Each structure stands twice: as structure tokens, then as C-alpha cells.
Amino acid sequence: MFRNLKFALNSAWQSFWRNLAVSLAAVVSITLILILAGVNLLVGHAFSQVLDGFKDKVSEMSINVADDTPLQSVYAFRDQLAADPRVASVKFVTKAEALSQFEQDPNNYALAQQIDGNPLDAKLDVRVRDLTDVSAIDAIARQWPGVDPINPTNYQGDFVNRMLQLSSWLGIAGIGLMAILVVVSVVIVMNTIRTAVYHRRKEIEVMKLVGATEWFVRGPFVIEGVMTGLIAAAIALSLLVLSYPPAVARFSADISFIPLSYDPSFISSLARDLLVGGALLGALGSYIGVRRFVRL
Amino acid sequence: MVLTPDFATRPVISFQHVWKRYPTGTEALRDINLVVPEGDFVFLVGPSGAGKSTMVRLLIREEKPTKGKIFVEGIELGRMKRRQLPFYRRKVGLVFQDFKLLPNLTVYENVAFALRVHGEPDSLISNRVAEALDTVGLAGKELTYPANLSGGEQQRVAIARALVHAPRMIIADEPTGNLDPATAWEIMQLFLRINARGATVVMATHNREIVDLLRRRVIAIDAGQIARDDRSGRYHEDVSKPQVRAQ
Known about the structure:
The complex is a heterodimer of chains A (296) and B (247). Chain A is of the alpha+beta class and 296 residues long. Chain A is built from ten helices and four strands.
């Protein structure tokens, strides 16, 4: 077993260098496919990052308290909300605190200068656990007698729902794109390896005639495919890692309202996905490519 | 020394009513029946397209018979499973007209190749290859590549590769077809020595001089049928003398 593995590794290594032109063609093809796959993964990750940011913001809602509502009633409603399993946290913000928050926001500086007195409502800042529950909590708040009837609540539920829909569609599109890339790359690798195998058909014929098993013949080609896939994945990964931060910086500069940021922690999962994907593509392409010639 | 085959010994090869029709419709063999005992030396002769190569291809299980049964050492080749085939081929030594050497491997590596695919250890490979190259008279040429050898030397390498795993049967398809008469004779001497050691040899050939000189068993194939099977035959039927039939 070990001797056969050693033979297969040696043979794969020699064949890779001996048929360098064909090997490089396979590396380039898989690299391009893995770059596309990597860009797909990065865009998907960036989008989910942006969406997570939005989700954090919009899972918060404010329930505005009418000025004449007794404090005890506010506390009772706050406790009622806090006991609701759908609610993650509730915080009471007094009128004075609301004004102070308003004034601290640099965007409101000019407006704050012109305000006389405190026109702001006291409010209950509620964070819900699941975005889909925002509208239910909103309905409860609107039925509470202490709510400000003119401006009962503030939240961005519709926007979130649209984002969630968009996200699920993008997810499906991403999976579809990945499936196409996998099929295309397997076909490319298969044909490239088949070319390499065709060059070595005499060797394969001799192997079979002297009693090599199918796996003994196939092994070196599958290992060569894995090697090709790993080299391609390493190249694709290097290019993606190098271009990821400047691409994010450029995007953020051009489209500043979308809060995209560079996430170094994603590199390790991208590396794992590309290396495993490259190795599997190479192995599968070789396995299929060599089948016709190997069959005894 | 010429050994007379012992027909009392157990049969190594047995064809029983074997027919072979290719998908193109060509009927290559028709109702072939023959028995080859252990240690026999058999020439398969006949014109091109007579069916000699088909018999060789059936023997090495590159083809299956359309009808009938072929037994080699008790194994029915037609019913052999694909995964058993490599192990069958390891029992047989094969020699071809075009040598089938790998040009990018040295003489040593070509011969060692047959043992590498069996997963043998390096120490055993090294001893066996040295022995096989010594038998065929190529000791000292281990590091030479096939392109730098003469046709006769290349065929010797192929024979060394066929011998290196000590098979009990050698199947050769026109092994002297590409060689000049003197070299062909040297190669035949090798086959005779291998046969003298006990291996059964089945050889398809067009080489009339050699067949006539060696006077071994001759099976003449014509239009897919056995035209004659002489225990001590010639390439063409000798009408002046009565023949001793093998069966």
C-alpha cells in the first residue's frame, strides 16, 4: 500500500513536470474558475456582512411615550415587554436623555441650536430577537394607552424585509453560479487530464498488460489532478487575498452608503474552501478523464 | 536440447468450441478446440488475418470469446471478473512485435515496471531485474534508454520484463517480426531457454525459417479455424511425410 502510494506520488510529480504545457493549461483553467468562485464567496460574505449590520440597526425600535403618561404605567409596560420572549432588551429613555442623545449627534448640531424647550418624547428603546417579530411588537405598542398617538413607533421593518428577500435571492443565485462553475471546471479538468492521459496511453496500456490494477493506473492521475487543483487554489487564493483589501477600500470610497468592510477572519474560511474545492475538482476531473483509458 | 512436450501433464490452456465475432461482423475464430499442456512450446502460424492475433488477444483477455470457453490454469477467462484480470496477467509474460517499452524509462526501469505494478519491494525488484537482464544478456545496459538500443536489444528488454516475475506461461505475438534473421534467431534461443526452464510458450509468428528449424508444435490457423495441429511441425504442411498430429 505504502509502496504503491510512493509510486503514485512519484509518478504524478514526474508526469506534472514532464507534461508541463498540459499541466499549466489545467492550472490556469482551474485558477480562473476558482477566482470566479472566490469572488462569488467574497461578494456573498460582504453582502451578508452588510445585511448583518442593517439587521442590528433595524432590530431596534422606539416606542414613543406620550407626555402625560404616568411613569408607573411606562414602567409596567416596560416590564411587560421585557417579559415577552420575542424581546431581547428594553430601555427607558427619558425626555431629557432623548434630548441629550439628539444634541450629541453632530448631524443635529444646527437644529439643536434652534430648539426651544424639549419637543422630544420619552421613549422605550426595544431590541427584538428576530426581525420578523418587529411588526408584532409594533402592534402591541400601538395598543398601549401610553403611546404617543401622533408618532407611536419608529422602525425600518419594510426595508429589512426587502433586504432579507434580496439576500435569499442572492443566496440562490450564488449557489446556482457555484453549481455552474463546478460543472464547467470538472469538464475543463476532465478534458485537460484526458489530453495528458492520451499522451500516456502507451504507458497505461503497458501497465495494464503487466498486471496493474485499475487503481494503480488511475492513482497517479488522480494525485496529479489533486496537485493541479491545489496549485491553482493557492494561486487563486493569493490573487484574491492581495486584491480583497484594495477592492473593499475602493468600493467603500465610491459607494459610501453601503457599510462594506475588510474582514480578515474570512480569509481562513476562503482558503479552506478554495483549497478543498480545488483538490476535489482536480481529483474528480482526473477520475472521470482517465476512466475510459484505464478500464480493463 | 529440444524438449518434447509431455502431453500427459495437465493442460495449461484449453480452448473449447471457441468462436469470436467482432462487432464489425468479422468472424475471426470459428469453433476452435485445442489443449496446450504445461511446458509446451506452441507456434501459431497462418496468413495475416487468419485469427492468430485474436487467439493471443483472447489468451491475454483483451477480448472475450463470443461463444465457447477458454481455460488457463483452470480459470475460465470469459467469466473472469474485471478486478481479477490484473492478477491473471501477473501470471503471464507478454512479448509483442513492437516491444511496448516505455521510451522515457531506462532499461532497468522498464523491466522493474512489471514488478512495481505488483507492489514488490525495491530490494526484490533490484535482484530480480539484475537476474532477468543477465538472462537476456543485457547486464551493463541498465541505465540505457530504449531509443539507444538496437531492435534486438529492445526485444531482449521486453523479454526480460516478461520474465522478471517468473511467469509459468509466456505469450508472444510476432516477437521476431521487426528483427533481422540473425537477431531473430538469438531471440528464439532466449525463448527456448525460458521453455527449457519449464514455462509454457505460445508464440504467434510469420517466421517460416525459425518454425521449420525448431520443429516444435505448430498450430496452423486459416480463416479462423485450426487447419492443422502438428506435434513437430513445419510452417507449411509437409505433404511428402506423414505428420504426427498433436491431438
